[in-house]
User: Fold this.
Amino acid sequence: MFELTPLPYSYNALEPHIDEATMRIHHDKHHNGYMTKLNATLEAHPKLADKSIEELLTDLNSVPEDIRTAVKNNGGGYYHHNIFWEMMAPNQTQVQGELAEAIKKTFGGFENFKEKFTKEASIHFASGWTWLVKDGNGEISILSTANQDSPISQGLTPIIGIDTWEHAYYLKYQNRRPEYVEAWWNVLNWEYANRIFNS
Ligand code: MN3
Assistant:
């Protein structure tokens, strides 16, 4: 059975950028909902019970066809929120070392990267996510995915990512998604991103 881990900080820790009410509903209702449905889906398949969520999503073809879509959607939703909370932090951190170098090399500088990513996340026409991902060769790129489709199902490692489902921002920002994306940069956990990039 998969479990819901508490947020690594308090519900109001990301204020004023991400508000407490949104964090409470997002974690306790939405994230919890994906987990509950995932567990219900896997109940009839005890053979899958020993697998980690990463293993399930990395190799969706090994998941029985009758539950594959449910695992992709609810497993993706469960996993993405696990890492989304880790990708944010109340204290300001900075991109460093090799990840900073890779961003410079790939996008011509941090500001260019930020602009490109912000634009992509702001216009992504779907309930989904926008990510910075790393491929098997250590190359990085910006990737948007629909629904809860996971970069790890494509063999890519998410380094940072933003939830662009309306439930992630609508209480505070309503239809102003670009404002939410701008605010999110203030709570990015670059220590996490640096660590994942180097792993
Ligand atoms: Mn969400």
Remarks:
- The chain has a mean pLDDT of 96.
